């Protein structure tokens, strides 16, 4: 069985076939709009009908007998007109068909009721049908729908579903049963590969509340058990999404219920009311929480913890969700009663009760937008001071987004919007520095300095970003420029010696390595120092290093982390170059020597053991802001980091970037820097 046979989407059930010449159709009663499918070959149909001749004489009627008929479409048990016409109908539809003789009983007719070459009219009502599908088009698995599902959506890869599965033998004995089975599409793991493929394929084609049976031929899945029947019921589909402020996967929401017709969600700075049903570490209740508990707070204000705040703005009224946070530092919350937490993860069960409406941005005038932007900027400053850096960053992002919507603003209002956006961008860089993301901070500073090359605060923040990225020469240049423009800048004065010292350590390590290399070269050819080189054709000079493409960024990933013998470490991420999150396509890191341990050398001790890993790749600038993380591949299975790293590629074309990372078991804490 090829993979092609198992993939692809078939929309034929939504498109009625065209009627051939010789058949006309008139819809007498439309089907309900929720019934959008059409029957196809192999389906078992139940219909009512009434047949008449051209003069109106009725020759047969199931309506009169009050007993519909059943037949299988495509087996030739009804006239050609029915085989061609009924597939254009939908459940509940009543239509009138007129068939020319070649689609009815032809030249022979059907004496005594139907003469030769008769044109017939049938009123047909499609009551219901049992859909049958050859799942892989090889006769091995025949799917029979026993209960029609609701809605249009099928579960997508990566989404979690709740379903029931039973495998029955030929005599009805239960071979296997999974009731209340929660599984992620794309990650089904059953006892054989073929069993997994069958269930994955069928679940991915089902709709909510749909039931079906799969008639599986002998030895197709289970060797030695003969023909089996698989019963499947798709009870619920859970929408899973990353709702964390930084989109780093630390806060994942699983929507388990939402009210039909509810689409609006809370905006920034509105009051919401939530019920916290439960808080666990994944298995046991978390100490400090006694619930259920109803809480109210203003979104984006810092009243609620980062986890609850970022989830709240993604929920509709009446929605229930299960939220998993793998960064417990984001979960301490006085409203809920959670203090310092030691669990590796926390799982919240939440229900959105209500939230206040707010004026839509598109309905605001220019002056009103600037006022809202100023208020958000001030609130961002307050959040920054209390070290709520993620929330502060979100505030500043909302300011820049709002100030970009300047159509219809007056000239004066547009200028104020530009100035406010400039401040917000500066403060975003400060937030990124505190969140351990110097690459994003660097990209913002580069963009600002391109237009304002003497911006002292921006130069200082770019110097900090360079320093965090171990780019000491660039950091030193920026700090010296800051002190030229503002000699009394205490931050630059304090940071410059640290940058110079760090560069000295690097230079010393390089010079020692160079000295050792020269000593080795001196031993080669000993006693032949005065020998003249032989004359001959001159060696061509080495070609100059090729200039880095402006469409790509040359990235070096560096990670210090100890792994077990036999393990391998990979970097994976969103771009295709990093495997598009597929571990099997990630880039393997190679072990490299660590930096010289000068302190150990001075004390005459053995150097500190290091486990430094490195890999290079080219990433396209068009990826913009991208994410990645490290994965250890071991014989016992894959181990992923607790959080993702973020890299800014936009604005970095032609650059060579080093990402020196630490393995993330827990989020890193940072001390705040100055902020506007």
Which architecture of the largest domain per CATH? Roll
- Oligomeric form: single chain
CATH class of the largest domain: Alpha Beta
Q: What proportion strand?
A: 25-35%
Structural class: alpha+beta
Q: Count the strands? A: 26
Q: Outline, from the CA principal axes?
A: elongated
| Number of alpha- plus pi-helical segments | 13
**What is the CATH topology classification name of the largest domain?**
Chitinase A, domain 3
Low-confidence stretches: 1-11, 524-530, 667-676
- Mean pLDDT figure: 86
Terminal-residue CA separation: 63 Å
Total discrete domains = 6
Helix-residue proportion:
25-40%
Taking Cα atoms only, what radius of gyration do you get, to the nearest Å? Answer: 35 Å
Largest sheet data? 11 strands, antiparallel
Description:
The strands form 4 sheets. Strands 7, 8, 9, 10, 11, 12, 13, 14, 15, 16 and 17 form an 11-stranded antiparallel sheet that branches. Strands 1, 2, 3, 4, 5 and 6 form a 6-stranded antiparallel sheet that branches. The protein is built from 13 helices and 26 strands. It is α+β, with helices and mostly antiparallel strands. A hairpin with a 5-residue loop joins strand 2 and strand 3 (58-61). It has helices spanning 3-6, 62-65, 80-85, 193-205, 306-312, 366-385, 389-404, 411-434, 438-451, 456-468, 472-485, 490-523, 598-603, and strands at 23-29, 44-52, 58-61, 69-72, 94-99, 120-130, 132-134, 141-147, 160-168, 174-184, 211-216, 228-242, 251-257, 271-280, 293-298, 320-325, 346-355, 552-560, 568-573, 587-588, 590-592, 612-620, 625-634, 637-640, 645-648, 656-662. It folds into 6 domains: 3-130, Chitinase A, domain 3 (Roll); 134-239, Chitinase A, domain 3 (Roll), CATH 3.10.50; 243-355, Roll (Chitinase A, domain 3), CATH 3.10.50; 359-435, Alpha Horseshoe (Serine Threonine Protein Phosphatase 5, Tetratricopeptide repeat), CATH 1.25.40.10; 448-506, Tetratricopeptide repeat domain (Serine Threonine Protein Phosphatase 5, Tetratricopeptide repeat, Alpha Horseshoe), CATH 1.25.40; 552-662, Sandwich (Immunoglobulin-like). The chain starts with a helix and ends in a 14-residue tail after the last strand. The longest helix is centred in the last third of the chain and has 34 residues, at 490-523. The model is unreliable at 1-11, 524-530 and 667-676 (pLDDT under 50). It is elongated, with a radius of gyration of 35 Å.
């Amino acid at each position: 069985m090829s993979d092609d046979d198992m993939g692809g989407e078939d929309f034929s059930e939504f498109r009625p076939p065209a009627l051939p010449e010789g058949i006309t159709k008139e819809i007498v009663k439309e089907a309900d709009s929720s019934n959008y499918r059409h029957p196809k070959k192999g389906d078992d149909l139940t219909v009512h009908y009434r047949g008449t001749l051209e003069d109106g004489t009725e020759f047969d009627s199931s309506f009169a007998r009050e007993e519909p008929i059943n037949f299988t479409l495509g087996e030739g048990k009804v006239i050609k007109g029915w085989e061609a016409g009924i597939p254009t109908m939908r459940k509940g539809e009543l239509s009138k068909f007129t068939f020319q003789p070649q689609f009815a009983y032809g030249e022979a007719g059907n004496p005594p009721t139907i003469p030769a070459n008769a044109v017939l009219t049938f009123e047909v009502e499609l009551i219901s049908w049992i859909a049958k599908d050859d799942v892989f088009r090889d006769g091995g698995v025949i799917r029979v729908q026993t209960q029609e599902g609701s809605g249009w959506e099928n579960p997508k890869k990566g989404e979690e579903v709740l379903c029931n599965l039973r495998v029955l033998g030929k005599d009805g004995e239960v071979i296997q049963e999974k009731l209340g089975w929660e599984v992620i599409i794309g990650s089904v793991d059953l006892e054989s590969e073929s069993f997994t493929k069958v269930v994955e394929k069928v679940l991915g084609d089902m709709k909510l509340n749909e039931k079906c049976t799969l008639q599986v031929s002998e030895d197709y899945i289970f060797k030695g058990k003969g023909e089996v029947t698989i019963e499947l019921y798709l009870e619920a589909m859970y929408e899973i999404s990353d709702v964390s402020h930084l989109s780093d996967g630390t806060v994942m929401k699983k929507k388990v219920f939402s009210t039909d017709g509810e689409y609006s969600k809370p905006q920034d700075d509105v009051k919401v009311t939530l019920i916290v049903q439960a808080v666990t570490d994944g298995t046991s209740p978390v100490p400090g929480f006694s619930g259920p508990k109803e809480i109210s707070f203003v979104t984006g204000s810092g009243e609620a913890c980062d986890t609850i705040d970022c989830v709240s703005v993604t929920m509709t009224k009446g929605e229930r969700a299960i939220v998993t946070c793998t960064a417990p530092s984001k979960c301490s919350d006085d409203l809920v009663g959670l203090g310092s937490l030691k669990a590796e993860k926390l799982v919240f069960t939440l229900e959105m009760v209500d939230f206040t409406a707010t004026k839509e941005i598109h309905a605001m005038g220019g002056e009103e937008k600037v006022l809202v932007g100023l208020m958000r900027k001030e609130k961002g400053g307050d959040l920054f001071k209390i070290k709520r850096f993620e929330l502060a960053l979100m505030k500043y992002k909302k300011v820049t987004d709002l100030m970009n919507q300047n159509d219809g603003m007056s000239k004066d209002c547009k200028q104020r919007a530009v100035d406010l956006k400039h401040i917000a961008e500066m403060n975003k860089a400060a937030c990124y520095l505190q969140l351990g993301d110097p690459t994003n901070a660097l990209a913002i500073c580069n963009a600002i300095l391109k237009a304002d090359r003497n911006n002292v605060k921006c130069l200082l923040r770019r110097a900090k970003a360079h320093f965090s990225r171990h780019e000491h020469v660039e950091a030193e240049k920026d700090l010296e420029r800051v002190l030229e423009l503002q000699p009394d800048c205490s931050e630059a004065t304090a940071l410059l010696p640290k940058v110079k010292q760090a560069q000295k350590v690097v230079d010393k390590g390089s010079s020692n390595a160079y000295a050792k290399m020269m000593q080795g070269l001196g031993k080669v050819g000993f006693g032949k120092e005065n020998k003249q080189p032989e004359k001959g054709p001159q060696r061509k000079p080495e070609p100059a290093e090729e200039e880095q493409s402006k469409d790509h960024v040359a990235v070096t990933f560096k990670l210090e982390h100890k792994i077990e013998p036999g393990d391998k470490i990979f970097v994976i991420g969103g771009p295709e170059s990093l495997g598009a999150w597929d571990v099997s396509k990630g880039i393997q890191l190679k072990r490299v020597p660590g930096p010289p341990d000068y302190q150990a050398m001075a004390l005459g001790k053995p150097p500190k053991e290091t486990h430094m890993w490195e890999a290079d790749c080219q990433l396209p600038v068009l990826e913009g802001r991208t994410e990645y993380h490290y994965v250890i591949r071991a014989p016992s299975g894959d181990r992923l980091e607790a959080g993702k790293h973020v890299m800014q590629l936009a604005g970095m074309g032609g650059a060579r970037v080093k990402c020196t990372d630490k393995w993330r078991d827990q989020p890193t804490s940072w001390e705040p820097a100055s902020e506007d």
